């Protein structure tokens, strides 16, 4: 039977679900977040009596009623995925789990669109950030040069991670809301030989989408030995990625965004060329848990349906990911990408109709799984986010340090976009319109 949620809508437990979005400065998941500075929370911002219009899509599911989560990850989850998390406890070396994990690794190949047997998938317990460590600890040796294409908070974080492992990092940073352009990338590659180039496919802090196909062609033409490594945390399963076709060497992502599985899994794919670079290291990786040396044979054994052990995986999360990937691959990936683009286009048109601007100003550089929206000068995050929450919709605050208080982020990935029975996007657009009006904003 579905669990009955009898917690009052205005209880402290429920308010805590949104309180971290309501800080007076930097409302969500940054070094400036309320979680790092709990004493700075102005609790007077929280409504004294909270009422929420719960979405029809949530009410019709087996999930307890809750505000619709439309941040750029975690996203809303399908019932079947969540039910998979309720799988009974089993050994991580039991035949049933080994079969499920093996199928999941094989499905990851299809998700990334690689048929090359030399490509190697990794599914590890951890967040998307663990993908950075996999790259930095295994593919780059201390003193080697890496070119990082800077598009926001997360590309900066990738650069910081590389430095921790001793890489010599050159950052080619673009202005807020845009990306480095191909001519300047070509110039940088011609000036120095780089072991690798990293690109954040969608920087979740700005909603900037980086183009991969032409970038890869440029790198292979100008610096063919340079590895092409992609942060696809906010792009895999909602933006087109052709691992083989575009000759990529590594893509790292996470479970909780467009893939639609609860947070807790680092998911990545590396090319045969990348794995050869790892095998050719002069020194062992400067990491234990993130060492490909410790994990590669584990992943290979599981994919071949053989029990193996280095560190304990999460059977429940693997079952959930198996369900999510089964759903994703039931239809052509091109159809999934087209539906995300159609929803994104509708949202961005609604934003324009409201007289608002996006952080990513160039339509060719706008992500299809999220939209970063500049607020009117008269509207504060601390007013609009609680207003949206009262309407049963949760958006995210800004995360880019230079503009953090000036914008909000609307995530539109997974079931909120793909399930035709849901009304999440329509409700969110209406909530944004009404919320801005309640905050005193009228389009000029």
UniProtKB/TrEMBL annotation:
Q: What is its EC number?
A: 2.6.1.44
State the InterPro entries in the record: Aminotrans_V_dom (IPR000192), PyrdxlP-dep_Trfase (IPR015424), PyrdxlP-dep_Trfase_major (IPR015421), PyrdxlP-dep_Trfase_small (IPR015422)
Q: Highest taxon of the source?
A: Eukaryota
CC annotations in GO: peroxisome
Q: Pfam families, from UniProt?
A: Aminotran_5
Give the keywords, sorted. Answer: Aminotransferase, Pyridoxal phosphate, Transferase
One GO MF term: alanine-glyoxylate transaminase activity
Q: Which family does it belong to?
A: Belongs to the class-V pyridoxal-phosphate-dependent aminotransferase family.
User: What is this protein's name?
Assistant: alanine--glyoxylate transaminase
């Amino acid at each position: 039977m579905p669990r009955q949620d009898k917690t009052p809508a205005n209880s402290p437990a429920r308010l805590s679900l949104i309180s971290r979005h309501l800080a007076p400065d930097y409302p969500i998941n940054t070094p400036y977040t309320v979680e790092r500075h709990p004493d700075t929370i102005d609790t007077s911002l929280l409504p004294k009596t909270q009422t929420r219009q719960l979405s029809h899509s949530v009410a019709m599911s087996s999930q307890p009623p809750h505000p619709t989560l439309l941040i750029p990850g975690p996203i809303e989850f399908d019932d079947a995925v969540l039910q998979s998390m309720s799988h009974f406890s089993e050994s991580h070396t039991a035949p049933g789990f080994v079969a499920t994990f093996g199928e999941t690794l094989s499905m990851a190949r299809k998700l990334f669109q690689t048929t090359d047997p030399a490509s190697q998938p990794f599914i590890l317990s951890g967040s998307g950030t663990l993908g950075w460590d996999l790259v930095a600890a295994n593919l780059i040796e201390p003193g080697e040069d890496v070119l990082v294409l800077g598009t926001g908070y997360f590309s900066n974080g990738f650069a910081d991670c590389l430095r921790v492992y001793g890489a010599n990092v050159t950052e080619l940073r673009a202005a807020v809301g845009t990306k480095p352009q191909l001519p300047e990338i070509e110039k940088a590659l011609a000036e120095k030989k780089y072991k690798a180039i990293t690109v954040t496919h969608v920087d979740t802090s700005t909603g900037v989408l980086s183009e991969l196909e032409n970038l890869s062609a440029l790198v292979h033409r100008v610096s063919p030995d340079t590895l092409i490594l992609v942060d696809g945390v906010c792009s895999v399963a909602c933006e087109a990625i052709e691992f083989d076709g575009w000759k990529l060497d590594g893509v790292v992502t996470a479970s909780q965004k467009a893939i639609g599985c609860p947070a807790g899994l680092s998911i990545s794919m590396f090319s045969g060329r990348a794995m050869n670079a790892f095998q050719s290291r002069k020194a062992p990786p400067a990491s234990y848990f993130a060492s490909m040396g410790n994990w590669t044979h584990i992943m290979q054994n599981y994919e071949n349906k053989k029990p193996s052990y280095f560190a304990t995986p999460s059977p429940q999360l693997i079952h959930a990911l198996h369900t999510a990937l089964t759903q994703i691959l039931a239809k052509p990936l091109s159809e999934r990408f087209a539906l995300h683009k159609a929803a994104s286009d509708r949202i961005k048109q609604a934003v324009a109709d409201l007289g608002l601007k996006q952080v990513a100003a160039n339509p060719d550089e706008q992500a299809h799984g999220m939209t970063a929206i500049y607020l009117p000068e008269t509207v504060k995050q601390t007013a609009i986010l609680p207003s949206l929450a009262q309407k049963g919709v949760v958006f995210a605050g800004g995360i880019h340090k230079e503009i953090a208080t000036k914008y909000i982020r609307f995530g539109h990935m997974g079931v909120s976009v793909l399930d035709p029975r849901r009304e999440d996007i329509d409700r969110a657009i209406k909530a944004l319109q009404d919320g801005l009006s309640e905050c005193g904003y009228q389009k000029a």
